[in-house]
Every structure is written in C-alpha cells, then in structure tokens.
Amino acid sequence: MNESQQVTRGELRYEGKAKRVYAVGGATPDTGQYIVEYKDDATAFNGVKKAQISGKGAINNAITVAIYPQLEAAGIPTHFIRQLSEREQLVKAVSIVPVEVIVRNVAAGSFSKRLGIEEGTPLPRPVVEYCYKSDALGDPLINTDTALSLGWATEPQLVRIRELALKVRDFLTPFFAQRGVRLIDFKLEFGTLASGEVVLADEISPDTCRFWDAETNEKLDKDRFRRDLGGVEDAYSEMLRRITKN
Ligand SMILES: Nc1ncnc2c1ncn2[C@@H]1O[C@H](COP(=O)(O)OP(=O)(O)OP(=O)(O)O)[C@@H](O)[C@H]1O
Ligand SMILES: [Mg+2]
C-alpha cells in the first residue's frame, strides 16, 4: 500500500484506555497493518481514576508521530508507518510481548515508593524494570526469569528488548535535554512482527513518560492528572511545542 492510497478503518480489534486499534478495511485491506486511534480518555491508578483531557488524543498522536521516525533513524526498529489524521496513525500489526519495560534515569513514582528513595534522586546508571502487562493484576513488577518461565518472551527477545530500551533512552535523554526537559522515566511496549523481528510498538507521550522542566522541575506529564496538579492540557501542549520546535 503506498502513501497515495486511502486507508480506511476496518473492524475494531481492541479498545484500551487511551487508544483504539482497528484492522485496515476498504478495498485494499492489509492484515499486516493496524490503524491506531488516540482518544482523549485518561486513566490512572489502574483505571480507578478516569477523565477526559481535551485534545490529548491529537497531542499524543502528534508527539508519537514526531518521535518514532527519529528513533528509526537512530537504528531502533518501530511499528510506525505514517500518520493518517489528527488522531490516527498507520502501524505494523505486531504480537505484543506482554512485558512492559520501564527505563528510569531518576527515581520517581513506584520506584521511589517501593525503595524509599526520594523522588528526583538521579540514578547513577539507568534502571530497566519489567512489569507483566495485565490490567486485571495492575501490571505487577516481574523479573526476566518470570517472563521466561511463564513463556511471555524468549531469552533472545528479552536481550533484544533490553538493548533497544536502553537505545531509546540514549536517544531520548539528550533529545529532551536539548528541549529543556529532564526525561525522568518512561514505559515502552515491544512486539514481534510475523518475521520474528522485535520492534518498538505503542506510544511515547506524556501519558507514558515523566517529563520535568529542566529549569523549574515542573511536571509536564500525566502526573499532573494523577496528582491533581491542574494544567494538564497546557503541560501536554507545551511538550508537543518543545518536541516539534525545529
Ligand atoms: N503495533 C501494534 N500491534 C498490535 N497491538 C498494538 C500495537 N501497538 C500498540 N498495541 C496495543 O494496543 C493497545 C493500545 O491501547 P491502549 O494504550 O489504550 O491500551 P491500555 O488501556 O493502555 O491497555 P493495555 O494495558 O492493554 O496497554 C495496547 O494494548 C497496546 O499493547
Ligand atoms: Mg496503553
């Protein structure tokens, strides 16, 4: 399918908290591709807190659309194909590895709570954590032995996932620093293509990263929603502005 051909939504395959995933329909369906639609819905604390953040879907789509091609250029294979509309993008269909990967530069959130380390404490080397992707269980922390033993990923896949996650970190940390933003931590999802290749999937946005202003440490991410800090829309717009400037 080339750029000039119209891509239309087929059947809804999955509706998550932040996005809808559709098959490609129309005259030229491609079973190797999905259409992802970004919604304005926001949830926190495993779906207990819910709201609409107006404009969030379009902003997170635009942010992901701006970042993924740059990751590709930096040698990180991703699911991204192209933007379709303000809220939609065309991606390669993958089989999602049910292991969420968190990379931390600075202690925050659950890491700080669990280990009693004050939020904002820089980590001398990045920490990669793994969680089982299960809404029912609240995405519990696991280690790689658990993922191997329960058949969620193979050893070569986990090695590749860790390597790619750190590569994403090595690209994004200076990328955001140049835009006056400290990248505190972020969550990634990976999937496998039919060929077996591991690629970065899902999104990178203020929903999935912690961003602090480099000067003031002001939060520019979903913690504004989680912690009722206000100014959620403004923070997301500000991140889009910084990411897409030059
Ligand atoms: N290229 C892809 N192919 C298949 N599935 C994908 C792809 N990219 C992302 N997904 C999946 O699509 C869903 C996106 O929806 P959303 O982000 O709203 O989910 P969510 O509510 O966060 O729930 P989940 O815990 O399932 O991620 C996720 O389950 C994600 O793993
Ligand atoms: Mg999600």
What's the topology here?
Blueprint: E1 9-15, E2 19-24, E3 33-38, E4 41-44, E5 49-52, H1 56-73, E6 80-83, E7 88-92, E8 95-96, E9 99-106, H2 109-115, E10 122-132, E11 141-142, H3 144-149, H4 155-177, E12 181-192, E13 198-201, E14 209-213, H5 223-226, H6 232-244
Antiparallel strand pairs: 1-2, 2-3, 3-7, 4-5, 6-7, 8-12, 9-10, 9-12, 10-11, 12-13, 12-14
Helix pairs in contact: 1-6
Adenosine-5'-triphosphate binds at residues 14, 16-19, 21, 34, 79, 91-94, 96, 133, 135, 189, 191, 201-202.
Structure description:
- Helices cover 29% and strands 33% of the residues.
- It has helices at 56-73, 109-115, 144-149, 155-177, 223-226, 232-244, and strands spanning 9-15, 19-24, 33-38, 41-44, 49-52, 80-83, 88-92, 95-96, 99-106, 122-132, 141-142, 181-192, 198-201, 209-213.
- With 246 residues, it is of the alpha+beta class.
- The radius of gyration is 18 Å and the shape is globular.
- The protein contains 6 helices and 14 strands.
- The strands form 3 sheets. Strands 8, 9, 10, 11, 12, 13 and 14 form a 7-stranded antiparallel sheet that branches.
- It has 2 domains: 9-94, Phosphorylase Kinase, domain 1 (2-Layer Sandwich), CATH 3.30.200; 96-231, D-amino Acid Aminotransferase, Chain A, domain 1, CATH 3.30.470.20.
- Bound molecules: adenosine-5'-triphosphate and magnesium ion.
- The site of adenosine-5'-triphosphate (ATP) has 19 residues, from strand 2, strand 7 and strand 12.
